[in-house]
Design goal:
Elements: H1 8-13, H2 25-29, H3 37-49, H4 52-56, H5 65-72, H6 90-103, H7 110-122, E1 148-151, H8 153-158, H9 161-173, E2 178-179, H10 190-193, H11 201-215, E3 219-222, H12 225-238, E4 245-248, H13 249-258, E5 270-274, H14 288-296, E6 300-302, H15 321-324, H16 326-342, E7 347-350, H17 353-366, E8 371-374, H18 375-381
Helix pairs in contact: 9-18, 13-14, 16-17
Length: 394
Amino acid sequence: MVKLPNIEREIQACLQCGYCIRTCETWNQTPWESVTPRGKVFYISQLGKRTALDKLLGRKVVIDDEFVDALFRCTTCAACSTVCHVGIDFAEFWEKVREWCIENGYGPMPAHKKIKERLEEVCNPYGEPKDKRGAWYPAVPKADNPEVVFFAGCTASYRMQNLAKTSILFLNRCGVSTNILEGDEWCCTSPALRTGQTGLTYRFAEHTINAVDHMGAQAMVTACAGCYKTTIHDYGKYYSNPTFEVFHFAQFASKLIKEKKVKFTKEINAKVTYHDPCHLGRHAKVYDEPREAIKAIPGVEFVEMKNIREKSRCCGAGGGYKSQYNDLAINIAIDRVKEAVETGADILATTCPFCVLNLQQAAKKIGAKIKIMDVCEMLALATEPLDATEPAKQ
């Protein structure tokens, strides 16, 4: 018999009802029962019950390449959890099973192996040099004892730098003193954790918490939904909970707006809809603050898509899915973009660099005119520089 990880309750509880199937974006792309949450849970249960008799009867109940591929054909968005009649936390479940497979010598996928190798080498999944990590920082002061350490994350630091830059500009305009860790900002390890590679998180979490503590900041603000979830949810499991407050940028921006520290000087006359990132929404239960920030912008007409909040559709970029199955990830994002277009919105806003990137690629692929923006970009656009020392163009 195969010794399964600590998932016995979930395996026994699963009713095999199939409600999870229709919520699964990856099943929509690869409509095989073996890829569905129900199909994978059933197969895992059979692995746990396997005996020598199976071999004699010619029953193929083994961990093979087909099963491993099905296991990683998942964005870990946890939409399946929202319809599960027995309350299985599938976000945790799939990560446990992936870790178990890797421990037994199966997986991860080739793209995910490279991610871990790059994290070990240069502390980011893109293989970029550490000394270039803070190169995006705009021409605003860095405080020695900042109110906020801004944690840009790997994607905003190296691929979506405008999101990091506009976040700092907005905070600066609100009178918030900021600084960054620069080369000492290491990956939060979300890309590794979501693909079952847990060995780096203790060391990386220890480094990040100590680095922010050493800077003496009151809080850490993240640009990325994945960084936020990992810091508040996973660091306590693998190392320690942070000793400082942790905010996602949208939460902190909403707080500043409520405290009347934001001076809006421009209108954005556009119809705007909002996409809930899975890590910020379903996983961390942050739904209201991004919407509050958008609605506060002068000129905005806010509209909702059909699937929102805990029922939001995944953009397709999470759980290592985009890195291994890029074309399918973009196809998932296309469905979400089409849903946004149906609202008549001019702007599809979200609060995650991964979502912005994948949704932009999807919109481009189908020629959609809707503009994909992060909330930080909208807030920066609707405010003005405090003085002439801030660059006119960003």
